[in-house]
Amino acid sequence: MAMSAMDVKRHNRVELFRAVLKKGRAGRGELASELGLSLPTVAGLVRELSGLGVVEGAGELPSTGGRRASAVAAVPDARFAVGVDVTRNHLSMAVVNLKGEMKAHERPAVKFAPTEEWRRRAGETVAGFMDRAGAPPGLCCGVGISLPGIISEDGKKLLRSHMLDIRRPAGIVLPLDAGLPQRLFNDASAGCLTELWGEDEPGSFFYLSLSNSVGGALVIDGRMVAGDNQRAGEAGHVCLRPGGSRCYCGKYGHFDAFGSALKLADPAGGRLEDFFARAEAGERAFARALSSYLASLALMAVNLRMLLDCGIVLGGYVGGFLGPHLPRLRARAASLDAFQGTADYLRLSRRKMEGAAAGAALHFIEEFIRGL
C-alpha cells in the first residue's frame, strides 16, 4: 500500500533524527545529500524537530572555501527511558537517553516475592532512582521491566518463571506515575535489544545471556524470533550433560547448572567481580572453576553454532568479565568445531553492565523515535 504524504513526512523526520543522532553534529546540506532529500525539506524537518526539543542549533561547520554552514545536533537528554531488571535478590535499574547512553544505574538488594509489599517497595525504589538520576516522569518515555521467565506476547504478564517461583500468569505493574507506560520483557530478550540498537545491518545471531539464570534470544535478519510459545532461545534448559548437576527447574544436566553466573559468584561470597579477580590472580580453586566453566560454555557455543550457523554474542553478568578470557574460550570452541579451525563467531556483548535493564529501556526509546 502506498504511503500517504503524512506517512512520508514522518518517515523522513525519523530518518533525519536518526542521522543527526548518529553523526552527533551535521549541516543541513550534508543531511540532504545523505538522505536524498531537498535542502528546503531538510530545513523544514529540522524546524519541526527543534520545536519538539530533540534537535538544536550547534554553531557553524568549518569553512570549505565559502560561507560556513550552520550545524544542528541532537539533544540526547531531551527524553529518557528506565529499565528495571528483576532478579531473586536485586533490582538492577538503568536510565537511558535518546542516544542509547546509560546515564545512571543502581543495583539495590530487593528480594523478590509475588506480593503487594514487594510491588510497593519495588515501585518506591524505582521512583527514588528516577529522582536521583534526574529522569522525571514528564521526560520519561516508559519503564521496561526485565524478568527471568516467559512473557506474554503483549508484554503485560509474566506467564511462568522457575527462577521467581511463578507458576501461573501474573501481572507485574509497579505503582509509578500513572502516565508512565510499562512493559515486561524476558531478561535475555531485553539484553539482546542492546545488540540490535544502533546497528545498520545486525543480521542474524544468537544472544546468550549468562546471568543468574541462563537464557538466550535468536535474531534472524535483524528481528528477534519468539517461537510458537514465546520460548525461542531457552538455552539454559538445553540438556548439555545428561545426568549432570541439577538445574533450578528440577531437571538434571541443563546448561543453566553449568553456565549460570551464580556458579561463579557463590564461591566468592556472591560477588562475580571477586571471583574473576581471584581466578586471574592464580588462586588454584578459582582458576580451576573458571576453566571448568569455560569448557562448558565452549561446548554450548559449538552446539549453538552447529544448529544455527550464525554469530554468538555472550552477554549477561558473566559476559562483562569474559574479555581477557575470550581467546581461551575461542580456542576451546575451535577444538570442538567440525568445520572450521577458529571460533571468531564468538563475540562479547557491547553492553558490559546492566544489559537487560538497558535493553528494556531502549524499547521505549525506539518507540519514541519512531513516533516523532
Topology summary:
Blueprint (H helix, E strand, L loop, with lengths): L4 H19 L2 E2 H8 L3 H13 L3 E6 L9 E5 L5 E7 L4 E7 L4 E5 L9 H18 L6 E8 L2 E2 L5 E4 L9 E2 L10 E5 H10 L8 E6 L3 E7 L2 E3 L30 H4 L2 H4 L6 H9 L3 H25 L2 E5 H4 L6 H11 L9 E3 L6 H16 L2
Helix pairs in contact: 1-3, 2-3, 5-12, 8-9, 9-11
What do these coordinates show?
By secondary structure, this protein is α/β, with parallel strands linked by helices. It has three domains: 5-74, Winged helix-like DNA-binding domain superfamily/Winged helix DNA-binding domain (Arc Repressor Mutant, subunit A, Orthogonal Bundle); 78-194 and 355-370, ATPase, nucleotide binding domain (Nucleotidyltransferase, domain 5); 200-348, Nucleotidyltransferase, domain 5. Helix content is 38%, strand content 21%. It contains twelve helices and 16 strands. The strands form four sheets. It has a five-stranded mixed beta sheet with strand order 6-5-4-7-11, with helices on both faces. Strands 14-13-12-15-16 form a five-stranded mixed beta sheet, sandwiched between helices. A three-stranded antiparallel beta sheet has the order 1-3-2. Strand 12 (205-210) and strand 13 form a beta hairpin. Helix 1 (5-23) packs across helix 3 (39-51), helix 5 packs across helix 12 and helix 8 (272-280) crosses helix 9. The chain is globular and about 70 Å long. The model has no long low-confidence stretch (mean pLDDT 89).
